[in-house]
Specification:
CATH superfamily: 23S rRNA-intervening sequence
Largest sheet: none
CATH topology: de novo design (two linked rop proteins)
Number of domains: 1
Order of helices and strands: HHHH
Structural class: mainly alpha
Strand content: under 5%
Helix content: over 70%
Shape: elongated
Number of helices: 4
CATH architecture: Up-down Bundle
Distance between the termini: 23 Å
Length: 106
C-alpha cells in the first residue's frame, strides 16, 4: 500500500507548477517516500518496539503528505476530487499502520 501511495503522490505532484519543484512538490514527495522507507527500515529492526517506532514515524509522514495536499488544494494545484483520492488512500494506509503498531505493542 505504501508503494502505491508513493506512486500516487508522484503522479499528483507532477501537476504542480514548476516554481514549486523545490518547495511543496519536494516536501510532499519526501514525506511520501518517508512513509515507505520507514516501514521498510522498521522491518529490519531487532525488536517490535523499534519497528513500532518506525511505523509511528511513517504515520507522521503520512499526515505531512496530507497537510501538503491541503496546501496544494488551497492554492488550486489540485482539485477536490484529486485531494479526496489521496486523502482516502492515506486514511486506509494509516489505519493499517496503526493496526500494525497495536499488534506490535501487545
Amino acid at each position: 500500500m505504501a508503494r502505491e501511495f508513493v506512486r500516487i503522490i508522484y503522479k499528483l505532484t507532477k501537476l504542480f507548477p514548476k516554481d514549486e519543484l523545490f518547495a511543496l512538490t519536494s516536501q510532499i514527495r519526501r514525506a511520501g517516500i518517508s512513509v515507505m522507507l520507514n516501514i521498510a527500515e522498521g522491518t529490519d529492526r531487532g525488536s517490535d518496539i523499534d519497528f513500532a517506532r518506525f511505523l509511528r514515524i511513517a504515520y507522521t509522514s503520512l499526515n505531512e503528505v496530507i497537510s501538503g495536499c491541503y496546501i496544494a488544494l488551497d492554492q488550486g494545484y489540485i482539485d477536490k476530487t484529486m485531494f479526496d483520492n489521496v486523502y482516502h488512500k492515506s486514511h486506509d494506509l494509516g489505519k493499517r499502520i496503526n493496526a500494525f503498531i497495536q499488534v506490535l505493542n501487545k
